[in-house]
Design a protein that fits this description.
alpha/beta; Protein-Tyrosine Phosphatase, Chain A; 7 strands; about 160 residues
Length: about 160
């Protein structure tokens, strides 16, 4: 059984947050912990920091990509898209096998329970993703960007 837990903000034990099954987000301290990385089956680490992080020797087999970037709103992120996309695509399809039935345990103040990968994707992740896309779309329109429904729907409307 492959159970992944999202830690409550008050929990001192750190765990990676599940973005989608087999894709996690965590802080540097957690990413540098070989026991945590191994227990989650993580094979790739992408770091976006203004310095090059170091990792323990036990993590030599974990694939790593570092993008040096400061926490500055003027910094351009688009030059990093191609390299980041290629790194994410280097994760094999086999590593996603069974993710629809893999159990994901969520323990947050506002949400807790155990879900299959498919339930998590369809009932939590995608609604959250589209909420953020719709919110960004609304903010951009409010700020004067001339975008409409066709821009939001993308290739579906063409």
């Amino acid at each position: 059984m492959d159970v992944h837990a999202l830690s409550d903000l008050d929990n001192p034990i750190r765990h990676p947050d599940v973005i989608v099954p087999r894709l996690y987000l965590c802080d540097l301290h957690t990413a540098q912990d070989p026991a945590v990385i191994s227990s989650y089956g993580i094979t790739h680490i992408l770091s976006v920091l203004d310095f090059q992080p170091s990792f323990p020797r036990e993590m030599l087999r974990v694939n790593k990509l570092h993008i040096r970037m400061s926490d500055n709103f003027r910094e351009r992120i688009t030059p990093h898209f191609d390299k980041t996309t290629a790194f994410i695509r280097s994760v094999s399809k086999k590593q996603f096998d069974g993710s629809d039935t893999r159990e994901i345990e969520i323990k947050l103040r506002s949400l807790s329970g155990t879900y299959s990968g498919e339930q998590y994707l369809m009932g939590i992740l995608l609604p959250d993703f589209f909420f953020h896309i719709a919110t960004a779309h609304a903010i951009l329109r409010h700020r004067g960007l001339a975008i409409g429904k066709v821009d939001y729907l993308g290739h579906v409307s063409r």
